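Input/output pair, single chain:
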Amino acid sequence: MDNLKSRTTELSATLGRRVAEIMGNSSELGVLKEGSIETELLHKARMRIAVQLRRCLESSGDNLTFDDGSISEYGINQATLTIAHAMVNPINIDWDVDRYADKAKLSPPNVDGSTSAGTERLKKFFPETILGKISVPTTIVDRHRKILVVYLPNILTPSRIEHVNNITIGLRDSLLKSLTLKEKNLAR
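Output:
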């Protein structure tokens, strides 16, 4: 367990260093200043990182097997470029997530799963934002620049996804057996 924890810590540190390096190199002036992203420099940085990410995804570096759970240099590079692209591609929405959370606490859900009156009132004050189709790494932030969602397509290589699917395939039947009939219908 300690070995896994140290490997996870090492991977996290490596990803952090590489993302910071990519962010620093993505613009002549850099896009980070005292830990905050300088929004006026994002367009050029986004274009540069997008080119690097596209080249990475088009390369044939993902032909690995995972016997020991190791992560390849290609996988780390793909992950760091995906994270960096999401950081320089924010979508700002006119929401205050703290205010929403306070209001949502006051409107508990119905036991049967149907929408409560409190939830309907929330829609009046917090209308759904129409974002359209998002197909590139993106960060969605509220009006106070708090991160709501980070979308990271292709963060995992296809062979990594296949590996996870293969090692978890036996769990599906066990999980389905443990659900009641009502839960099964809700899960679908």
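The CA atoms of residues 19 and 175 lie 37 Å apart. The longest strand covers residues 147-151.
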